[in-house]
Structures are given as C-alpha cells and as structure tokens.
Design a protein that fits this description.
The protein is of the alpha+beta class. The protein has 6 helices and 8 strands; from the N terminus they run ββαββββααααββα.
Length: 219
Amino acid sequence: MRTAANVVEGKGRLKKFCLRGHERLPENLTKSGGCKICRQEIEKSEVPAFKDRTGLTYGELFVEGRVIDKKSRRIHWKCKCSCGNEVVVEGSSLESGNTRSCGHLHREGLVNRNTKHGLAKRGVKLPVELRAFYGARERCKASYRYHKNYLDRNIGFHFKNFQDWFAELGLRPSPAYSVDRRDNDLGYQKGNIRWSTRLIQSQNRSNRKKEDCIGRSQI
C-alpha cells in the first residue's frame, strides 16, 4: 500500500519515509517504531540556545563565569557587584532585570524612600537616626510590650514623618549618644527630644524621681 510517506523507486521497489522525509531504515527506528532522527530534531528545537553571559554587565553586576547549581544541576552565573560582593544568580533573573545587584540597591532604595538627607550608605541596612525614629514611634503604640511606661502615661509620638524628626534632632554626635526626652512627662515632640549620653539620661531620671518624692511628701 502506497501512502504519502512512501515513495516508489525502480521496479516495484518500495522505500519508506517518515512524515519529515527521513528514510525508515532499521537503524533509524526506535523500539516503538518511531523515527529517531525526528525525535532528536524535536528535542533539539525545544532546548533554548545556550547564551554565554561571561563578561557581560547587568545593572551593578559583572558576570565572571558560569557555575552549576549542586541541587538543581542548572547553570547559574557567578557575578561581582559594584560594591565588591559576589553573588550567584540565575540567567533568567539577569535577563529579566529582577536581579540588578547583590541586594544593596534594594537596601539603599529602602533608606532613600524614608530620608532625603544623605543618610543612605552602601552596605548599611538603616541609619541610626532612622532606627531611632522607628523605635520611638513603636514605643508609643498600644501594642508595645511596656506601654504602661509610655502610652499609659500619655507619652505620645508627635512627628508626622522622619524629615521633621531629623530636622529637630540632626545627626547623632557619636555612638555614645541616644535619643532622650528632656521632660520625661512629655512625649516625643519638638523641643523635648535630644541626643544625650547615658549619664545625662540617668540624671534626668533621678531628677524626676526626686520631684515625685517631693510632690508626694507635700500631699
């Protein structure tokens, strides 16, 4: 029986071909009767062409070479960031732009969204001035563990944003300083916050205790 996949050659001699035009010789057939050459062509077409990214730059990352991931056995790329850190990244993340640095761009963006005073530093999660802002604000919430020392005493947080906070406090003079309230009975508000040492803060607390004792003795 002659079909579209068969061709007559010579006197009654019949050659068989697959639908892709490959001759159906015994050595070209699989155990199930399929065409080995067709299968190889299909597999080859499904595999994306390999792209050597060595020497290319993606954002802040310079690709130094390829590595094989031990778990997935997939090709990854060893990159050196402009800040000096080394990271291993998937090729798809580099191509899509999802990964543009070792992570410092994300950290710097976080800081820059919260401050416009030049406090963002590469490699630092959050500047101490910003951490002090978040810490003071957290202490004045009802969910704070020791709220009886703050919210229950009407100690509130009266700064709308970090810019106002920073304009009042400025940069921390040295690591020996932390945020203190001049009047412990007032909240975090303009004119009542400052950078001070532990010694000054302890004196401030002792003065308040003396005033409380004097007040109780007069009652």
